Every structure is written in structure tokens, then in C-alpha cells.
């Protein structure tokens, strides 16, 4: 499958994620050396790198979508092929639909928006199958019938 080059903001996200992983590995390595050889200098380095890795993780989860990067690292996932706008919109619908205090009317509006998104891009159903089935069972049943009819 042909993949386009990542846009600059996605490249920055992935680079920042790799830096976070390197800081985490440095923390573990420095901490292990400090404990195994009783070297307090390495313990200070481990604590400093641990602090930096926690700050990077906090920033990344808040602003750089680290949860998606965690799922897709290092090879990618099908959700990476969908435009960020579609992905953010469907994930917002999924989040909103799991809220306990939403009313029936809001839930119906979310189902309608979900059906419109799946109609625009059918790959969404393949990627978010379980989530869509939980929110809109009839849409999931129709998509399964359509998929099974295409295999015959």
C-alpha cells in the first residue's frame, strides 16, 4: 500500500515521541547502573531523566496525541491513513457517546453525525468497528451486511 509522506506536524509528534522513549530508556538504564554499582551520580542522572520523561509524557498526551502514537508506533495503524479532521471528529463522537449524563436527543444527534461520517469514508467502520457498533448498532449491522454481500 502506498503511503504519503507525513505532514510536518505529524513528523514533529513522532520525533517528540521518540525523544520521550529515549528519555525513558535513559532513565531505566541510569537507574539500573546506579542501583547495581551503587553510584550516586547515575542516580541523580536517572532522577533528572525521569523528571524530563514525565514532563514529555504529560505534554505529549495533552497536546501531541501520544495515545494514538503509542498504539501506532513504530509501524503505524490504519487510523493513520484517515485525515486528522475525520479521526478527531469520530473520536470526539466516541468520547461524547460514553458520557453518562447525555440525553436521548444528544445521543441521536451523535448517531446521526456518526452515520454521516461513515457514509463519507467507509474505512472508518473498518478501523472503529467495535466503537461504532456500541454507539449505533443498526449502522454496524448494515455495514456488516454490505461487507458480507461484497464477499459473495
Q: Kindly state the percentage of residues in helix.
A: over 70%
User: Alpha-carbon distance between the termini?
Assistant: 24 Å
The major pleated sheet works out as: none
Shape: elongated
User: What is the radius of gyration?
Assistant: 21 Å
Structural class: mainly alpha
* Number of extended strands: 0
**Beta strand %:** under 5%
Question: Would you list the SSEs in sequence order as H and E?
Answer: HHHHHHHH
Unreliable parts? none
**Total helical segments:** 8
Overall pLDDT: 81
Topology:
Layout: H1 8-37, H2 40-63, H3 66-72, H4 84-97, H5 104-120, H6 123-127, H7 129-135, H8 137-151
Helix pairs in contact: 1-2, 4-5, 7-8
Please describe what this structure looks like.
- The chain is mostly helical and 152 residues long.
- It is built from eight helices and no strands.
- The chain has helices spanning 8-37, 40-63, 66-72, 84-97, 104-120, 123-127, 129-135, 137-151.
- The mean pLDDT is 81.
Amino acid at each position: 500500500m502506498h503511503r504519503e509522506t507525513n505532514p510536518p506536524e505529524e513528523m514533529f509528534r513522532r520525533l517528540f515521541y521518540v525523544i520521550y522513549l529515549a528519555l525513558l530508556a535513559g532513565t531505566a538504564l541510569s537507574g539500573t547502573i546506579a542501583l547495581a554499582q551503587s553510584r550516586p551520580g547515575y542516580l541523580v542522572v536517572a532522577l533528572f531523566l525521569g523528571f524530563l520523561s514525565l514532563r514529555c509524557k504529560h505534554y505529549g498526551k495533552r497536546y501531541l496525541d501520544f495515545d494514538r502514537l503509542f498504539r501506532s508506533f513504530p509501524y503505524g495503524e490504519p487510523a493513520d491513513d484517515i485525515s486528522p479532521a475525520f479521526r478527531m471528529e469520530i473520536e470526539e463522537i466516541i468520547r461524547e457517546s460514553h458520557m453518562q449524563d447525555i440525553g436521548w436527543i444528544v445521543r441521536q444527534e451523535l448517531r446521526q453525525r456518526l452515520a454521516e461520517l461513515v457514509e463519507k469514508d467507509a474505512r472508518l467502520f473498518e478501523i472503529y468497528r467495535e466503537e461504532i457498533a456500541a454507539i449505533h448498532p443498526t449502522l454496524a449491522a448494515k455495514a456488516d451486511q454490505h461487507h458480507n454481500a461484497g464477499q459473495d
